[in-house]
Design a protein that fits this description.
60 residues, flat
C-alpha cells in the first residue's frame, strides 16, 4: 500500500486496511477488497479506541 492509498483510507478515522482473511464479520464492514488488502470500517466501541491510536502517515 502506497502513501496515497493509506492517506485516502485513513481520511475516515474508522477505516482500516487489513490483510485478506483478517477481517472480522462480527466487527468489520468490508468496503473494498483487493488481492493485497481489505479496507474495513470499524463501528462501535472497538473502532473508536483503535481510531485514536492509529496515526496518519508522516510524509517527507
Amino acid at each position: 500500500m502506497g502513501p496515497e492509498e493509506y492517506e485516502a483510507l485513513r481520511s475516515d478515522e474508522m477505516q482500516f486496511a487489513v490483510l485478506p482473511g483478517h477481517e472480522r464479520a462480527s466487527e468489520d464492514e468490508v468496503l473494498v477488497r483487493t488481492d493485497r488488502f481489505v479496507v474495513v470500517s470499524k463501528d462501535g466501541p472497538g473502532g473508536v479506541g483503535t481510531a485514536r491510536a492509529v496515526p496518519t502517515l508522516a510524509l517527507p
